[in-house]
Design a protein that fits this description.
There is one protein chain. This protein has about 210 residues and is an alpha/beta fold. Helices cover about 50% and strands about 15% of the residues. The chain is built from 9 helices and 8 strands. Strands 2-3-1-4-8 form a 5-stranded parallel beta sheet. A hairpin with a 5-residue loop joins strand 5 and strand 6. Helix 4 packs parallel to helix 5. It is globular and about 45 Å long. The termini are close together. The relative contact order is 0.19. The structure holds BIS(adenosine)-5'-pentaphosphate and magnesium ion. BIS(adenosine)-5'-pentaphosphate binds next to helix 1, helix 2, helix 3, strand 6 and helix 9.
Length: about 210
């Protein structure tokens, strides 16, 4: 089963994708994570995307489609979770063709609905484990008092360069201008299910499980 988790920055896509990896053995394909890895490894592509990402703008379709193509051709999985991809109509068309080329289908698109006020709080309070990538939040999911990651025991935590109010404004604008048209695109294909992303993490997890169970 291949699914897309769609929603604005901070909607909880990464949090829920990690859960599906753990509980269902699916493979998370987050273009944001792939681009951050490229940035950290200092490759030519990493240098090009670093500035674009810090501002909160979208990286070119060509780059992200290339990243997804490579994964689909090389990784074998019991279902992919597309997290933060596609983000434009060109990316959505490309994904359809790539899956078809691999003899696979797209089975569900889950839109996580949240309001903008909640997103500011979620984004500015987020941190992730530098070792395993577990996502924390100063208010809703704090790092344990002993300073150790609950998943891997790591003690180093990072904050993202684009997790500030200024970049978030641009990220939200990009979402509404370029990504939200995909809601209609997948609705018309009969694939879209909306869920309440404002509920707590476990409740959202249950809603996603119910969609996948259908
Ligand atoms: P990307 O990394 O995809 O970022 P994003 O879409 O802005 O989304 P986030 O990762 O910020 O949020 P999330 O929905 O994963 O939320 P999370 O689970 O972490 O992209 C970054 C940049 O890369 C883009 O701006 C662009 O430049 C580039 N890029 C990436 N993909 C691209 C593409 N396809 N095309 C072009 N450019 C691309 O949760 C957030 C916080 O909330 C956490 O602290 C978490 O603990 C907390 N939380 C989660 N769920 C809940 C809940 N239910 N209740 C309370 N708190 C919660
Ligand atoms: Mg994410």
């Amino acid at each position: 089963m291949n699914i897309i988790l769609m929603g604005p920055p901070g909607a909880g896509k990464g949090t829920q994708a990690r859960n599906l990896v753990e509980t269902r053995g699916m493979v998370q394909l987050s273009t944001g994570d792939m681009l951050r890895e490229a940035k950290d490894s200092g490759t030519e592509m990493g240098k090009i995307v670093a500035e674009v990402m810090a501002k909160g703008q979208l990286v070119t379709d060509e780059i992200v489609i290339g990243l997804i193509k490579e994964k689909l051709e090389t990784v074998k999985a019991n279902g992919f979770i597309f997290d933060g991809f596609p983000r434009t109509l060109a990316q959505a068309d490309a994904l359809g063709k790539l899956l078809e080329g691999e003899g696979q289908t797209l089975d569900a698109v889950i839109e996580m609905e949240v309001d903008d006020a909640a997103l500011v709080q979620r984004i500015t309070a987020r941190s992730t484990c530098a070792h395993c990538g577990e996502v924390y939040n100063d208010i809703t999911k704090p790092i344990p008092a002993d300073g150790k990651c609950t998943v891997c025991g790591g003690t180093e935590f990072k904050r993202r360069a684009d997790d500030n109010e200024e970049s978030l404004k641009t990220r939200l604008m990009e979402y509404y201008k370029k990504t939200s048209p995909l809601i209609g695109y997948y609705y018309a294909k009969g694939m879209l299910t909306k869920i309440d992303g404002l509920a707590d993490i476990d409740t959202v997890q249950g809603e996603i499980a119910a969609v996948l169970h259908k």
